[in-house]
Amino acid sequence: MKILQTPVRFHPFIGGVENYVYNLSRELVGLGHEVTVLCANETKSEREELLDGIRVRRLPYIGKIANTNITPGLPIEILREDFDLIHAHLPTPWSADWSAIVAKIRRRPLILTYHNDIVGSGFASRVAHLYNHTALKFLLKQADKILITQPKYLKSSPYLKGYEDKVVVIPVGVDVERFRPMHSDKLNNSIFFLSILDEFHRYKGLDQLLRALAFVKEKIPDVRLIVGGGGDLLEHYRRLSEGLGLEENVEFLGRVSDDMLGNYYNRCAIFVLPSVSRAQEGFGMVLLEAMACGKPVVCTDIVGVADEVKAEGAGLIVEPSNVNQLAEAISHLLQNESIAQKMGEVGRRLVEERYSWEKVARRVEEVYEELI
């Protein structure tokens, strides 16, 4: 099967959608399919290359609108490709919209992974509103199947109503070989947080985590927060931590390399993802990575895997933007090491049984084969 993936960006660019497309494509190649990725050349890599068996073609772009790279040559390049189906991705449009148009022209199936709603603030909010009430309707109507990573989207998204017959729930996965428990020097009373630190990822809740840390510090003076990720808001978060008197308790790593990521997961005591926006939070792939490394997690109830974390006992769930509740959950796990260790063991078993990329790819393959 010849599969064309059209994310707006691709590995080595760091982001949830980029990781999703990379890992899914790699597994599909392993299942014997030909996968081509057509994307913007952000990270300035080779224009065309073979990456883990994935043919990657990167196109020049003229700028961005609301975090979406505008690649003028995309429509022609999609038309030139030989494919059996197109797999497009939201919340960044343009690539998905042109994929829908070409799929209709070429009479090929279109699969859309709807990672989350398109929202924004300021000018981006106006662009999102216009798109959601115009082009999005055509895209959802044109899609033969719509993949969502958590069933909650059917209730929370106002845009998926009426398309339930097309929707298939398939979660994201995790590389259980790359992310695994390792022998490393654990930092006592340490918390790990990982995200891109820009305006579009503010919903990950680092502001709330820093404010919660100030309360945790009153009980655990040597508590330490390790923040992985870079972006335009890095200095904002530095100033916020200083204003809260946390200069000695917070370390900003900047961008974490792929080679070092597993080490940071393994060195922390707990991992925290306090996302605040149900519309913007996709699934919380970093939670799966932390759980695969045997770490207990704290997250809000809007994260995709939150229900299973709670049901299986792999961590603690808190309400979005509830700083006091977040501080209590963090303090509880840091002060009860035996409970935290058991939760970490449960989390590892959970991802092995349900969230390996191989299992996810086979479920996506079934959707493809049904359409072909």
Order of helices and strands: EHEEEEEHEHEHHEHEEHEHEHEHEHEHHH
Number of domains: 2
Ends distance: 9 Å
Give the strand order, joined by hyphens, for the main sheet. Answer: 3-4-2-1-7-8-9-10
Which ranges are low-confidence, i.e. pLDDT below 50, for 5 or more consecutive residues?
Answer: none
Named CATH architecture of the largest domain: 3-Layer(aba) Sandwich
Give a count of the beta strands, DSSP E runs of length 2 or more. Answer: 16
Q: How much of the sequence is in beta strands?
A: 15-25%
Structure, explained:
This protein has two domains: 2-173 and 356-371, Rossmann fold (3-Layer(aba) Sandwich), CATH 3.40.50.2000; 190-354, Glycogen Phosphorylase B (Rossmann fold, 3-Layer(aba) Sandwich), CATH 3.40.50.2000. The chain is 41% helix and 19% strand. It is built from 14 helices and 16 strands. The chain has helices at residues 16-30, 74-80, 95-106, 123-132, 135-142, 153-156, 206-219, 234-243, 258-267, 285-292, 306-312, 323-335, 337-354, 357-371; strands at 2-6, 34-40, 48-51, 54-59, 64-65, 68-69, 85-90, 110-114, 145-148, 167-169, 190-194, 224-228, 250-254, 270-273, 297-300, 315-318.
Tags for this model:
372 residues, alpha/beta, Rossmann fold, 6-stranded parallel β-sheet
Short description:
The chain has helices at 16-30, 74-80, 95-106, 123-132, 135-142, 153-156, 206-219, 234-243, 258-267, 285-292, 306-312, 323-335, 337-354, 357-371, and strands at residues 2-6, 34-40, 48-51, 54-59, 64-65, 68-69, 85-90, 110-114, 145-148, 167-169, 190-194, 224-228, 250-254, 270-273, 297-300, 315-318. The protein is α/β, with parallel strands linked by helices and 372 residues long.
